[in-house]
Amino acid sequence: MQTVQQTDYDAFSSKLACLSKGYLPPNEQSLITPIKGFVSIYQGYKDLHLQYFQALKGEFGGRRLASKINRSIQNSQPVMNYGTYLRTLSIDIPLLSYINEIAPSEQCQIVNLGCGSDLRCSQFVDKGEFPQVMKYIDLDFKQSIEFKQSVLQKLPQGPSNDIYEAVSCDLNNIDETMSVLTKLLKADIPTVFITECALCYMPQEESQILIDSIRKTFNTGVWLSYDPIGGDEPNDRFGKIMKDNLLMSRNLDLPTLLIFNSKDTYSNRWSQYEQVTIQNMWDFLQSTISPIEQKRLQSVQFLDEIEELRIMQSHYVTMKAQWQ
Amino acid sequence: MINIEQIIELLKLGKLIPEETVYSICLKAQELFIQEANVSHVDTPVTICGDIHGQLHDLLTLFEKSGGMENTRYIFLGDFVDRGFYSLESFLLLLCFKLRYPDRVTLIRGNHETRQITKVYGFYDEILRKYGNSNVWRYCCEVFDYLSLGAIVDNQIFCVHGGLSPDVSTINEIRAIDRKQEVPHEGAMCDLLWSDPDDVDTWSLSPRGAGFLFGKNEVNKFLHENGFDLIARAHQLVMEGYKEMFDGGLVTVWSAPNYCYRCGNIAAVLRIDDDMSRNYTIFEAVQPQDSVGNAIIPTKKPQMDYFL
């Protein structure tokens, strides 16, 4: 459990690195197809993350964590910053599009399963730009949630309490997870479920039960997921090497990386959902990010190796499963 | 006096070399490189090697699989440092071989052998980690400035790290470059280290932000004008270790297997024999082992490898 929790600090320091180098935030020219409100969800984005980072240092163990995070920011490499940028947008874009489709007079709910230090709650709740969002739930392990709550309390503008709620729960305990979700959310309101590098740490069976239970319980919504896939080409060894590397270097297991190894095997888990689309992140880059923005990204730091970027991004996917 | 043989043995074990010793090695190597032309001539038989990127243990495998320094000549096409965990040891090992066997080793500068790039891609940080100061990095960067820009094998094969430049149509134009400097952001010297072959009709902008893309036309023209058969270059990761293009007029050789310990590619070197035949030797990554055969996992990882 702890090894999984620690991946959150990888994600958070990656995001800080991406911000400090200037990859994030994107701008009005970033997308091939512009989306209403895209730029404004990133207003104050960098400050928000820096404030969170500052506040985190005051927590128990925070100083050590902060120096670790600082080191990874310093050593951040272009290929990773590029990927963090893409990962962030691959959730933000469909999330914003979905909310945009809901009239301001209607309601929707957002749940981030395995949220870690993710601060989308602030982007989509605090600014008051999305009156549709009547509930935003962050869900993660007890320790992560307690840590996050006390950091958030120190921020000048924490998320509004009546809409935002952070709940602790082990995702692998499906009964507990579903009872928390049904207690806090309304089943007949459109609901966004986000899993950003969360399902990949769950056992195969549990993740499937979670996917099926949510489909059964909630009448309408969308599931947005970002995860690595092992690869299914005969000579593709990326997944096996990744699995071995992470097991060996930090005892972190990705139980389904080689099972859900392709776009098809990954997205088949949502076959009960009505509209399922999935893209690998390399295709996402080509189909979503404008040439002018790609040029900007290349110039932030020298991107020395395109093929490596392609290989890595081809082994991550962004999936959207919508129902009703 | 430094004992080169002894240092080579220490380097092969991945041992840290004292700062003063590194200084002496760099100074001696510099004295050798300063004598060399921008483009040196090399005889067959010779083994042409691509990017190494600090993967010391794979470099040792490379020597093992291709005959070894004692038995054959080598051309290294640059990118000795950055990305891998043993940039310093890999580069010093090659420098020591150069000092020990000056006529058997040709080292060509890659786009990573610069101050600016090594600050982004790991070599600078590696030195700080290993020595607590940047002196050794500075000594190495001084050597980088003297590395040659290309080599010609038996008047028939042009070896370069990246590729061609719109500012260069003959070898004499490369000879005229003042190479002893940090690699500029544009111009002939930059292009030779940064450009890539691609399926393009004419010179095109490179997605790397430096150098150009060039196609079959440019390659054929260059080969014809200079009377060459082949351009051998590195610079691009190739999953199969090598890739011939343009009806065999150009080859990319990549010698860092499982690049960055995660890409899963195989590596290759190209041996050119006296009859100019091309023989590729491919090899795979090895798990670094200590003297009693246990796997070595670098403990201080300089970067995060994956999105988690």
Report strand % of chain B: 15-25%
Give the class-level CATH name of chain A: Alpha Beta
Q: What global shape of chain B is seen?
A: globular
Number of β-strand runs of chain B? 14
Number of helices of chain A: 13
Helix/strand/pairing category of chain A: alpha/beta
Low-pLDDT stretches of chain B are: none
Beta-sheet strand percentage of chain A?
5-15%
Overall pLDDT of chain B? 93
The total domain count of chain A is: 1
Structural class of chain B: alpha/beta
Question: Mind summarizing the main beta sheet of chain A?
Answer: 7 strands, mixed
CATH architecture of chain B: 4-Layer Sandwich
The CATH superfamily of chain A is known as Vaccinia Virus protein VP39
Q: How many E-type strands of chain A? A: 7
Q: Helix-strand pattern of chain A, N to C? A: HHHHEHEHEHEHEHHEHHHE
Outline the low-pLDDT stretches of chain A: none
| Count of folded domains of chain B | 1
Quick structural gist:
With 324 residues, chain A is of the alpha/beta class. In chain A, 48% of the residues lie in helices and 15% in strands. Chain A contains 13 helices and seven strands.
Written account of the structure:
The complex is a heterodimer of chains A (324) and B (308). Chain A has 324 residues and is α/β, with parallel strands linked by helices. Chain A has one domain (2-323): Rossmann fold (3-Layer(aba) Sandwich). Chain A is built from 13 helices and seven strands. Chain A has helices spanning 2-21, 45-56, 62-74, 78-100, 120-126, 142-154, 174-184, 204-217, 238-250, 263-267, 281-288, 291-300, 306-313, and strands spanning 108-113, 133-140, 164-168, 191-196, 221-228, 275-280, 316-323. A seven-stranded mixed sheet of chain A has the order 3-2-1-4-5-7-6. In chain A, helix 1 (2-21) packs across helix 3 (62-74) and helix 1 packs across helix 4 (78-100). Chain B is α/β, with parallel strands linked by helices. Chain B has one domain (7-283): Metallo-dependent phosphatases (Purple Acid Phosphatase, chain A, domain 2, 4-Layer Sandwich). Chain B contains ten helices and 14 strands. Chain B has a six-stranded mixed sheet with strand order 1-5-6-10-12-11. In chain B, strand 8 (204-205) and strand 9 (212-214) form a beta hairpin. The A-B interface holds A 7, 10-11, 13-14, 72, 74-78, 80, 83-84, 87, 197, 228, 235-238, 240-242, 245-246, 248-249, 252, 294, 298-299, 301-308, 311-312, 316 and B 82, 111-112, 116-117, 120-122, 125, 207-210, 236-239, 258-264, 295, 297, 301-308.
